[in-house]
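Per-record layout

source: Actinopolyspora mzabensis
name: Transketolase
length: 288
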Amino acid sequence: MSHALSEAQAATGTRKAEIAAFAHRMRHNIIDMGEAQGQGYVGQALGVSDLLATVYRDRLRFRADDPRWPDRDRFLLSIGHYAIALYAALAQAGILDVEELDTYATDDSRLPMSAMATYTPGMEISGGSLGHGMPLAVGMALGLRGRDSPARVYNFLSDGELNEGSTWEAAMSASHHELGNLTAVVDLNALQADGATGSVLRSEPVVDKWESFGWRAVRVDGNDISELLRGFDHLEQGESNRPRVLLCDTTIGKGVPLLENREKAHFMRVDEHEWQIAREQLEGTVQS
Ligand SMILES: [Mg+2]
């Protein structure tokens, strides 16, 4: 093994360990916020922690002390009900104080249960009505390109949102306008409010669909940090005038076996005594 290769491997190992630690702290934040409310979108949030940690620790260009920095990359939370996950990421990224997470979903908090751009630093759009994120992302990407900004736009959406016609109109526009500064990230957790995605409205074959709309698409295990890094790297190589999409299969409740794929996981109710069990299980399942 060459010296250069071993150094590169060590650097990758450090990078992965830092992302894993970020994700682990996020999961603790999510459990703490969930416990204060006794319920919520905890399962999805645990499922996307590895993904958001990779994005905020390794991909996104931002200034923690200046969330409105004009050249920042925009990360759009189209799925506003995942706000609990993004608050944890924003806190670990230094954009929010970790202590502020204690106010989650209380009166007068800047951290409401569903995302509000006017309330929260680092929250780019008010999401929640599904299908709005992609059209907004396309408009932002066009606007940024029009003023020669180096900023990139990331839109984070869910498999449930692939049911929305507006998502596909926007996807078609993005390739028509050759928006190489736009990346979609899709959480494929195989569940949506009304049931399993495969039985409500099937989105497979999902890679073929995006590619047929002119996007560069890669599908990865969204709970494997190495795969996430490789997926993003792969998307960033090659043609620069195509929009890109990272399709991420995730496990609801990931890291806490008690909560993984439990019944009625879309809006999870967790008994009082289970929160401490969740913390202990989280300590036993740290990704190396
Ligand atoms: Mg889903």
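summary: The two ends are 23 Å apart (CA to CA). The chain has a mean pLDDT of 93.
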